[in-house]
Amino acid sequence: MGERQEAMRLELRRGxxxxxxxxxxxxxxxxYSLRKALQxxxxxxxxxxxxxxxxxxxxxxxxxxxxxxxxxxxxRYYQISSRGEDALTMLNLEWQRLSESIHQITExxx
Length: 110
Description:
Strand order of the largest sheet: 1-3-2
Structural class: alpha+beta
Radius of gyration: 16 Å
Distance between the termini: 24 Å
Oligomer: single chain
Shape: globular
CATH superfamily: Winged helix-like DNA-binding domain superfamily/Winged helix DNA-binding domain
Helix content: 55-70%
Number of strands: 3
Order of helices and strands: HEHHEEH
């Protein structure tokens, strides 16, 4: 894959990652478990991308977090907030609209 194609692929993924993270955090998880849950469905995300994204979503009020010292380790658990659920609903609707539009234009151009 060329450098420009890779840049376009990454740009497309960037927006989709917000949707994936908000959806995955409908159940409470800590960073590593979130990363593994995303990987399990084919979304490989580096820690250097995931953690800043989660912190940014929390700063927007879309996620809530709490600290826990379970199993002798201090971990920060995240879960989607009610504001995050509203945002997720809007993002899902937009994703569906865009997907349908891409499908229509693909069928038209054939």
